[in-house]
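ok here's Multidrug effflux MFS transporter:
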Amino acid sequence: MKLLKKEHEQVASVLAFALIPISGLAMDVYLPSFPDMASDLQTSASNIKLTLSIYLITYGISQLFVGSVVDSFGRYRINILSILIFTITSMAIIFAPNVYWIFGYRFLQGVAISFIVVCKRSFFIDVYTGDKRKHYTSMLTVVWATAPILAPFLGGYLQEYVGWRANFYFLFFYGLIMLLLEIRYSGETIKSRQPFDLKSIIKVYKKLLSHVDFTVGVILLGFSYTMVMVFGMSIPFIVEHSYHLSPIVSGYSALLSGVAIFLGGISGKLLINRPFYQKLFVANMIQMITALLMFFSADLSIGLPGLLLFVFIIHLCQGFTYNVYFTYCITRFPENAGTSSGIASGVCYIIFSFLSYVIANFLNVQDQFGLAISYMFCIGVILLLLLIFKPAISSQVSLQGE
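and the structure:
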């Protein structure tokens, strides 16, 4: 077994951070290409959106189980195999004859990326302790937020000047480079393996989900990121069909959203020692007020810049709250790092992949009015959960010393 060498610890940490955005890159880089893919593959917009939903649902469901696998069998070999599968399927999508083949490849990518991300999140809990662990884990969502910043921005230019397949060439080369670097510098980090048997796994799941602060947090994360996904799935059609602008503008619009999420994540890290419940509640109240203003100004013809101003504020607060609660959830049970990380992210992805697809298609979000309604729905659910479970959340956070 190849163990992580002490002298490679810093390089391996950089590589782990470089792989954390892989789920976002695979999710966001081809968003500006949705209209072109539908035309080129001679299929509907719903089918193109479904390529994203299949990936997200598979990624989410897989994480519910892969945590137990990597806690039992280790991180390194599983991670290497998963990167290889991701790289091969990225190339396969380029030559797919129709959208139905892409459905299958995206299914495989969802599984592979779930292993990669759970392994890399567990890396920081394996290698670091105390304040260093807290520092690095709070950086995870900040680093992850680079994907929504860079991916659609890059994807907009790739679409404009090359075409939709260029996005998957990018993913192929990214995967290949990371595979070679991981083989050279990374290694196994798990210190004690958990038994892989059904009774033990069920026992761990029951333990984690029996804590209200953890379970409610996972649900909150799902509704929180639903807002971002509805925006991501809708903005190419809003920009290109409603405002008749180019895919590059879609990329810049997604870039603005990504910057907001990134800055929100930074704020969450900077305010990590502020009262836990209070900062969550205040941020969500700001979101609700902004969404209401967005709703009531929908008939004022404020244009794309006005729409994006509201989006920026809502996504800034989303990045903040997501960072705060996700950091709490994945560090809640360090002895079951892979499983807790998998459940937190997995359930979150299942929730927002299902909700975002339903909302984007049921509401047919193609303007400010529809987007505002989707925001108000998600924010309203989050605020309701925070109010209902305030005593349980606050008491458990106090026990954890947050």
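+1. Residues 33 and 164 are 5 Å apart (CA to CA).
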